[in-house]
Design a protein that fits this description.
It is globular, with a radius of gyration of 22 Å. The protein is an alpha/beta fold and 426 residues long. It has 18 helices and 16 strands. Helix 13 links the parallel strand 13 and strand 14.
Length: 426
């Protein structure tokens, strides 16, 4: 007999009808029907236990430098190239976890700095870990907190031991070291942990970048020692060195000497511009082990992502699709659409006639323009869903192209579509 779900909120009926079209909706339906008790039992299985399965990376095929692979984890597979939506404070803003999964995301990013301040890592640990806390049963990567300490905290003191800073929330005093960062990320129970590093703001002198990079390498060793041996979890090292090839090489050699489960390329997308970033990516990924995933931190716009994958990057994250959605910006095959513009107020067409997200399937540009102008919450919800859907569709397109050996054709068609610009106004 078919299972019947009774909806207290009628809006959820529309949401679940959309999810029902997705193949993985069967993963969510039993949890919705079974109630809180069953959900808790399902999510408690791995928290606080050493999982037997180790995280591993399989490189399936290359097309030029572009790589198709998969990261296998106890909480599920991460198809690469992968884009990770950012759930800064335990949520991807304007999205429910089920809707994020419906866009095709295999993994989320959580923010150590924000979660350690509020609600605190200790509280999340007591409540069963970050997966249970935010109702996300797929893998989670957490950053180390170093970048936010440097970029958000005006009152801070940097020493060999770590960073002392004041909270941007209430001014309370905190200390973050490699050891404390590893402790916090273990309390959060994230699947992929990032070592603690310093990311200097650009522009900076070569001496400043070199000093910062060498400090980060010493912190990387301390992070490795504090992380220990944790089957079922992974620790990534972070390459630094700014835009100087010799410093990038020195950093890569230091990290390989320590040994990590994956390697990130840090210190980019911090104001150096796309040309300089691509200049570094022309050589930096090749300095890292071939058999480990490569993660470009904090990137980016769609053309940044395609360019990074072309140069051998496997993973990326960025707040852009969700932040843009909340500010009336939509990303489409033909470039960026500013839904605030008056040209959309009488337009009955969707954002993208080829897109299958709820915003494009069920709503017109005129409606999206109206709800943004009226400051309705649904505006950010629909545009964020659309943007994340587009980003995941872009990743799937690249995965398919790499697998078929047609990445160069995919890239040419991607840029050609964007050069056309938005559809003609009515």
């Amino acid at each position: 007999m078919p299972q019947v779900i009774r909806y207290v909120n009628p809006h959820l009926r529309v949401f679940h009808r959309y999810l029902a079209k997705k193949a993985d909706f069967r993963l969510f339906r039993p949890r919705l029907a079974a109630g809180r008790g069953a959900r808790r039992r399902a999510q408690d299985g791995t928290k606080g236990q050493a999982m037997a399965q180790r995280i591993d990376f399989t490189l399936k095929v290359q097309d030029g430098k572009a790589r198709l692979g998969v990261i296998n984890t106890p909480r599920g597979a991460i198809r690469t190239p992968a884009f990770m939506p950012v759930g800064t404070a335990g949520t991807v803003k304007a999205m429910m976890p089920e809707s994020v999964a419906a866009t095709g995301a295999d993994i989320l990013l959580g923010n150590t700095y924000h979660l350690m301040l509020r609600p605190t890592a200790e509280r999340i640990d007591r409540l069963g870990g970050l997966h249970r806390f935010m109702n996300w049963d797929k893998p989670i990567l957490t950053d180390s907190g170093g970048f936010q300490v440097m970029s958000l905290s005006e009152l801070r003191k940097l020493t060999e031991e770590g960073v002392t800073f004041r909270s941007h929330i209430d001014g309370s005093r905190h200390k973050l070291t490699p050891e404390r960062s590893m402790e916090i990320q273990k309390l959060l129970d994230s699947d992929i942990v990032m070592c603690f590093d310093e990311c200097p703001a650009l522009p900076a002198t070569d001496d400043q970048v070199a000093k910062s990079m060498r400090l980060s390498m010493r912190w990387a060793q301390r992070s490795r020692d504090a992380f220990g041996d944790r089957p079922g979890y992974a620790l990534f090292g972070i390459q630094q060195g700014g835009v100087t090839q010799e410093l990038r090489e020195e950093s890569a050699e230091a990290l390989k000497g320590i040994g990590f489960d994956g390697y990130a390329i840090g210190g980019l997308a911090v104001g150096e511009g796309q040309e300089a970033m691509f200049g570094v990516l022309d050589y930096a990924p090749d300095m890292l082990p071939q058999d480990r995933p490569r993660y470009l931190m904090g990137v980016g716009k769609p053309d940044d992502i395609v360019g990074a994958v072309k140069r051998g990057v496997d993973m990326m994250d960025c707040v852009l699709p969700s932040r843009s959605g909340r500010t009336g910006q939509a990303w489409t095959r033909r470039g960026q659409v500013n839904i605030k513009n008056a040209r959309h107020q009488d337009d009955p067409r969707p954002l993208d006639e080829h897109c299958t997200c709820p915003a494009c399937q069920n709503y017109s540009r005129a409606y999206l323009h109206h709800v943004f102008r009226a400051q309705e919450m649904i505006s950010g919800m629909l545009l964020t869903w659309h943007n994340l859907h587009y980003y995941q569709e872009l990743m799937q397109g690249m995965r398919d192209a790499i697998g078929a050996g047609t990445f160069a054709q995919f890239e040419a068609e991607f840029h050609a579509a964007r050069e056309m610009g938005d559809i003609e106004r009515l």
